[in-house]
Structure prediction request, 254 residues.
Amino acid sequence: MSSLLICIVIFIIFMAAGYAGLQLQTRLAPEHKTGETKGVVGQVAGLLTLLLALVLGTLIGVSFAFFSTQRTNLENFSAQILRLDQALAQYGPETKPMRDKVKEGIVRGYEAIWGGGEADPNLLTVAVPLANAQATSEFLATLQPKTDAQKAALSTANLYAGLVEQSRLLISLQVAAGPVSWFLIAILVFWTASLFFAIGLYAEPNALVYAALTFGALSIAFAIFLILEFGQPYTGLFKVTPAALVETIEFIDK
Prediction:
């Protein structure tokens, strides 16, 4: 289920809770409409408002930090790819097949995620980097350096091949873990629905109240949408910028 569809469902839940409160108030007994009762409900609603403000702000911050971390990881990964390619070039023409294969893999990944179509989530699993790392290690093991320059280049290539593998695995593992659990989202939805119910319980039904409830539900649903989208930096609507990868593709294998 997409983040947008999830947030539409959440918006409907919030609206239903608010409207349920508005409908229930007509059936309240007189003793439930006293100033003291309204005061208690108002205090609880205020507590929920404070909790929502703290938790919602924290979760948005955590998700955006995760999104920013993925951008940094992608930049580090791109820099390590360039250094690996440079070391292979310094070794000699024997490494040209590997350089071409590395570039082909980078281009394929870029087109799959940023090419305009729907990104394949399988590309972000650890299976892909593990397979690529194995192929790279096997190729480097076949090289037989004859000069000190080739030995130095091979040593550098092995170093950056390991760094590339680590960076790519780190990206996959972080994406698999995600920044925010669904349990926290469920708690957030429950608190918000309860707050909207409490607001509707003692509000006078009119056009302005309905508009306010709609705007509030839409705002919090959109905030949850941001949390979910920032947690999908390669498959969501807001993808991390591929500028570093584009630069890598331009200069690799030259």
User: Anything to note?
Assistant: Helices lie at 3-24, 35-91, 96-114, 127-142, 148-177, 182-201, 207-230, 243-251. The chain has a mean pLDDT of 88.
